[in-house]
């Protein structure tokens, strides 16, 4: 049984007993025993631990965790302090700077956003070292679909920042008209030049939240 430590426990209580999740758990047990897998098993659910269902007001959807040492810690696009921001995160910082005048920090840890209600959720929550997408199709997509579908029921507005094709695939789950979907290319260097830098998703998120009477996000990172 997974213990998240907030309202997600009640919302997801039936998920852990479903056949797909039991298969996923067996797969992960073997992977963690035989290979180096990221993030640390105690960090897998950090996005949900740091951002409760009740507190969620924006969602950024990533693909799968960083697959090199000392980077992934359970929040999409975020890396542990002491490690330089990876290329996609550098591009996120550039877009923020163009949008809000944001001053990029020397680190890449986005915990401050998570604590303010930004759910930093990858579509796949684990990865084998050095092998991007190695845990794709093992069941995580079903789990994160459930998380998004629960957020779709939320009575207060949520802004979904959907960057790239993996995130866009989740858009069809978000059917509630009270929520806002913002689309842009992925911030990867391979695609960011196609319009990510100019998307202004950060100021648009705050405009939407303020219009709904919800405290906006302070995107500053200390």
What is the strand and helix layout of this fold?
Elements: H1 8-11, H2 19-34, E1 37-38, H3 46-50, E2 58-62, H4 87-100, H5 111-115, E3 118-122, E4 127-128, H6 140-152, E5 159-163, H7 164-169, E6 180-184, H8 201-211
Parallel strand pairs: 2-3, 2-5, 5-6
Antiparallel strand pairs: 1-4
Number of strands: 6
Overall radius of gyration = 17 Å
**Number of contiguous helices:** 8
Low-confidence stretches: none
As a percent range, the share of strand residues is 5-15%
Summarize this entry quickly.
The protein is built from 8 helices and 6 strands.
Report on this model:
By secondary structure, this protein is of the alpha/beta class. It contains eight helices and six strands; from the N terminus they run ααβαβααββαβαβα. It has a four-stranded parallel beta sheet. The protein has a two-stranded antiparallel sheet with strand order 1-4. Strand 5, helix 7 and strand 6 form a beta-alpha-beta unit. The chain is globular and about 45 Å long. The model has no long low-confidence stretch (mean pLDDT 96).
Search tags:
222 residues; alpha/beta; 4-stranded parallel beta sheet; two-stranded antiparallel ribbon; 8 helices; 33% helix
């Amino acid at each position: 049984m997974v213990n998240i430590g907030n309202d997600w426990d009640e919302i997801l209580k039936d998920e852990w007993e479903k056949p797909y999740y039991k298969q996923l758990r067996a797969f992960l047990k073997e992977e963690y025993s035989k290979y180096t897998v990221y993030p640390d098993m105690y960090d897998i659910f950090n996005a949900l631990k740091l951002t409760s269902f009740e507190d969620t007001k924006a969602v950024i959807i990533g693909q799968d965790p960083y697959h090199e040492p000392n980077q992934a810690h359970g929040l999409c696009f975020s890396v542990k302090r002491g490690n330089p921001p990876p290329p996609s995160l550098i591009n996120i910082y550039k877009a923020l700077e163009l949008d809000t005048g944001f001053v990029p920090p020397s680190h890449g840890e986005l915990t401050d956003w998570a604590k303010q209600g930004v759910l930093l959720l990858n579509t796949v929550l684990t990865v084998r070292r050095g092998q991007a997408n190695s845990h794709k199709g093992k069941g995580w997509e079903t789990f994160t679909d459930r998380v998004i579908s629960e957020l779709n029921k939320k009575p207060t507005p949520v802004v979904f920042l959907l960057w790239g094709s993996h995130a866009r695939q989740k858009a069809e789950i978000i059917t509630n008209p009270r929520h806002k979907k913002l689309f842009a290319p992925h911030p990867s260097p391979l695609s960011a030049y196609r319009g990510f830098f100019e998307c202004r998703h950060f100021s648009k998120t705050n405009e939407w939240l303020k219009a709904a009477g919800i405290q906006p996000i302070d995107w500053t990172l200390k």
